[in-house]
Amino acid sequence: MKNIRYYIKKVLEFPNFLLVNTDINLNAMWRDCLSKENLKTTHFQFDFNKISDNDIISTHCIIAFLLNDPNGEIVNIQHNKLEIFLKNTIPNLLKVVSPYTEWTTDNERAEELVRSLFLELELLPEGETSSYFQDRYLSINSIERVRIFEESKKAQNRAREILAQMKLKEAEEAASKYNRE
After folding, report:
1. Closest C-alpha to 43, from 79, 9, 7
2. What is the pLDDT of residues 71-90, one digit of tens each?
3. What's the rounded Cα separation, in Å, for the pair 19 and 56?
4. Which letter does DSSP use for residue 64 in this model?
5. Contact indicator for 44, 165 with CB cutoff of 8 Å
6. Cβ neighbours of residue 46 under 8 Å, at least 6 residues apart?
7. Phi-psi bin for 141: left (phi > 0), alpha (psi -120 to 50), beta?
8. Residue 37 CB: number of other CB atoms within 10 A?
9. Which of 14, 70, 80, 85 could form an SS bridge with 120, CB 3.0 to 4.6 Å?
10. SS3 70
């Protein structure tokens, strides 16, 4: 494997103009991609031609472009893990990173896509420890960032409710005291 920067650069170099027409047979694309010598594997169980979302189709193309890089040194991938990534992870990522061009125009999003793929495939880029890889992945993970943001919003709302209840209680006590005097 090469350094992570190599793979990020490949994603950023993806020729978006190729995806003007998204009438792409994903099953054929993946069959061709996986028949390459370095990625030999069996075919997927899932019918990727059922996918109609342009962002998902385009992200599949970016991943195939990355995996087919003749200098990428990505070998011995487990097809079942790749299928899980393509079928589950990509749609989940695209719920928070959209449109697909974010992968090819933003360095951090490109890194997130590469690290998400490598995490699922259990690949470790050259020069990184497993611990560093995990830490870096969590620091740029958009899904995690959204989750933390939502939790923080809930905590702020709870704090506002508690403050409002305290003020109401103070007002009630003040009114009770005023009525007694």
Report:
1. 79
2. 988 887 888 899 999 999 99
3. 12
4. H
5. no
6. 83, 86, 87
7. beta
8. 7
9. 85
10. coil
Q: Which of 18, 83, 25 is nearest to 50 (CA)?
A: 25
Which residue matches tokens 């090469």?
2
Residue tagged 């061009």 (tokens): 101
Candidates 80, 65, 58, 4; CA nearest to 32 is: 65
Per-residue pLDDT tens over the stretch 97-150: 989 999 999 999 999 999 999 999 999 999 999 999 999 999 999 877 777 777
**CA max distance for the chain:** 91
Please name the helix (run of DSSP H) or strand (run of DSSP E) that holds residue 69, with its range, or none: none
10, burial (CB in 10 Å: exposed 0-12, middle 13-18, buried 19+): buried
Structure tokens at 133: 């890889």
Residues for the chain: how many in total? 181
Q: Give the global pTM.
A: 0.79
Q: Report yes or no: 11 and 117 within 8 Å, Cβ to Cβ.
A: no
First-to-final CA distance of the chain:
81
Contacts of 69 (CB under 8 A, 6+ apart): 10
Whether the CB-CB separation of 81 and 40 falls below 8 Å is answered with: no
Residue in 3, 96, 11 with CA at minimum distance from that of residue 59: 11
Q: Rounded distance, CA 131 to CA 126, Å? A: 13
